Amino acid sequence: MDARTAKRTARTLEPLHALGYFSPDVDAAMGELGLRGRARYFVSRSAPMGAVGAGTVTATFHNFHPGLVAHAMTGVWEATTPGAAVAARFAGIDASYRRLLGEEVLASESLAEAADLARRATEACRPEGRPLYAGHADLDWPDEPHLVFWHALSLLREHRGDGHVATLLRAGLSGLESLITHTATGKGFRLEAAKKSRGYSDEEWAVGEAALVDRGLLDTDGALTEQGRELRRDIEVATDELDLAPWAHLGDEGLARLHELATPLVQQVLEQDALPAAVFASG
């Protein structure tokens, strides 16, 4: 199977998983646990790994400012438990899917088929060296098809993300440097959104850019050099290769069918402005 074909499907599915980060329903459910601000995001995503501290979250999430993570994670496990956080996230996703897709879609044979295909793809995911994926894979599978679908998408997303972090480390990029070079491609976060969401000041960003200029990866205007563009291409190719196993397991026919079933669901979500488009560049 062509890794680019697999990547195309992963990108198509991404908005249906990303609701877990941006849904007001998930945010409200985490808030009911007594969590505030950025702690809701960090806890909702890291809770499957257990009551981990800021160091583990910083390591596995990779490109967030350690100070931001440390501040957000202070006292969170005194307010709630990993099990309660996992349950709250699923409850929020359940509410989001019902609100955005509707009961008729959730009860449809096509949604059940998509859930089965996505779950089948996860059968080829491996936990070695993939801590976020492994934590989520330890969770029990939900019963309802739309939650099976979302959980499978989460496993596939974290599996790919863990592999991506490995390629960034192989390239010798810190979390900040990874974020700067990704933003410089014009296909990721918008500059100000990247700084704000990941917790870096203008001064820290400038220091990171200077280090990348010294390595020959950025020019003095903050644009990627040819060497920088080549490095980012290599990172994406390596990420795709590390992410190929679940899609190859599904096979060309299964992959095409999943893409076909998921596309109208994604369109329905995006048409309702469920994701903050202003955060991302248009490239």
Which terms would index this structure?
283 residues; globular; mainly alpha; 72% helix
- Whole-number mean pLDDT: 94
Reading the helices and strands in chain order gives: HHHHHHHHHHHHHHHH
SS element count, helices = 16
Beta-strand portion reads: under 5%
Category from helices, strands and their pairing: mainly alpha
Distance linking N and C termini: 26 Å
Number of strands: 0
Poorly predicted regions are none
Main beta sheet: strand number and arrangement? none
What global shape is seen?
A: globular
Radius of gyration: 19 Å
Helix content: over 70%
Characterize the structure shown.
The structure is a single chain. This protein is mainly alpha-helical. 72% of the residues lie in helices and 0% in strands. It contains 16 helices and no strands. The chain has helices spanning 3-22, 24-31, 39-46, 54-61, 66-73, 76-79, 82-101, 103-106, 109-122, 131-137, 145-170, 175-184, 191-198, 202-214, 226-242, 244-271. The protein starts with a helix and ends in a 12-residue tail after the last helix.
